[in-house]
Amino acid sequence: GLLLLTSFLLHMEEGRASPTRLVCDNRLIQKYIGEAKDMEKRAGQCQALPALSCPMVLPLVDFSLQQWKSKLNETKRREILCDLSLLVGAAAGARGQVTQECGARQLSQLYRHANSFLLLLQTFSWEAGPWEPACSPRSTEQTHVTSIFLTYRQLVQGKLRFFFHDLAKDLCK
Q: Which positions make up the signal peptide (predicted)?
């Protein structure tokens, strides 16, 4: 775990260094939302992205804000971890099927970003103990590469942003 955290911190872009800073500085989550939108836009501009021959399983990341607010932070974290692990797997699987350079480059970038959030959320200290990847989020199968980017943007804009907002109430006094 410590090796993963050290590796993660060494390979992060400037500004991603502290979980507390990520939660407490609202500009950072806005930056990541902007990056997700840019990745989605650039992927949409790639010429002739083929449909995937093997469909990717993507999490359904829509949620009711009312229900979301009633959940414990640990429950929210586990739900987001499940969504992210599916997304990381979908990005990796799609990357193996896309030979076109533009699409492959965007998928690699999305994989890195989603995996960074996955590692970061796994290293947050919680009373409930370590994360076990035993989850079955609501999901759907997709053959369009662009749907992976859409799902990632929706996850960052929705659950992640609200989760960080909720954590900020406790961590950023």
A: 1-17
Beta strands in 13-162 (DSSP E): 56-59, 139-142
Q: Look up the CATH number of the domain holding residue 79.
A: 1.20.1250.10
For residue 68, which amino acid is it?
W
pTM: 0.83
Residues 6+ apart with CB under 8 A from 122: 1, 4, 81, 130, 131
Boundaries of domain holding 84: 19-125+134-171
Residue 168 CB-density burial (10 A; 0-12 exposed, 13-18 middle, 19+ buried): middle
The reply to whether 29 falls in a domain is: yes
Cα gap 142→149, rounded to integer Å: 12
Q: Which of 2-11, 13-22, 117-126, 161-170 is least confident?
A: 2-11
The total number of structural domains that make up the chain = 1
Whole-angstrom CA distances from 100 to 20, 105, 106, 142, 144 are 38, 9, 10, 19, 14
Q: How far apart, in whole angstroms, are the C-alpha atoms of residue 110 and residue 69? A: 28
Q: What is the pLDDT of residues 126-155, one digit of tens each?
A: 545 554 555 767 889 999 999 999 999 999
